Amino acid sequence: MRGLVIVLILLMACGCGQAGPVPPRVTVVAPDVRPAEVQDPAVPPNASTDSTECGDPRESLRPGGPLPLPGSMPPGSTMEKIVRRGWLVAGVNQNAYRVGYRDPVSGDLAGFEIDIVREIARALFGDPTRVRFIALSASDRVPMLRRGEIDLAVRTTTMTCENWRDVAFSTEYYTASQRLLVRQGDPATEIEQFGGRKICAAAGSTSIINIRTFTPTAIPVAAPDVIDCLVMLQQHQIDAISTSDILLLALAAQDPQTTVVGRPLKQQPYGIGVSPSTPDLVRFVNGVLDRIRANGTWTAAYTHWLSPTLGPPPPPPPARYRP
To answer: What predicted TM-score, i.e. pTM, was given to this entire model?
Structure first.
């Protein structure tokens, strides 16, 4: 009898009696998240990337002779003011893998453009770490330069006559080409196949202007940064991203479910943005760029950061100077 009681107790404890009702399976669907400040559709920009009103937009001011020794800048110059301050202030990207991004291990900013900024700091101070980096969006570049909040904007900025109205540029430090990024398996490979479909680019960029130039019936979508475009592409909120190859290949390296397609649409020469009120700083930066082209620093930076996605380094873009 005692053994029977024990068996009954065990059956009750393990629930081996009559099975209770099975709860219904609940499927939770997470809503898509749209990045803040997205324009869908984008406000049609009143600008052109083809103007030649400024002559050749790749031409800049010639360096003013040999570079001064670090820490010994000409009295009264913009460079002397920067040295007296103690650091260079540079506006950069922190979301472009291998171009300008925050290293997840060290937490420091790193990439091809970051190396260029550090070479300018080296020429000013003799110390490449004397930089205060400010992460900014594409639309922040011009306002922050004009307000004097940054000394330089080194953030994939295309040299166009339209942009020359607001900022001065160094000589060209990288030649990009605008292309497309799509989800793997999308049959469309050229921009003309995206009529009626959504193509995303950064607000304030030349890429957003060029979309309707090639496909007037496409729907341009503007986001604060191309990384926001990638989020929307992953969630099927847009159909493609169109910006420079250097940025698209960085996105594709982060998301193997995407691929870069299509012919190069338009060249995008990148220059360092400087306030028009500081032409001496433009000449100084051009002297630094001349030096890193000649001594192999540009090629070494390209090989380290960009060759894993773009292949062997080409020759550096030649400097073009105004008469």
So the answer is: 0.85
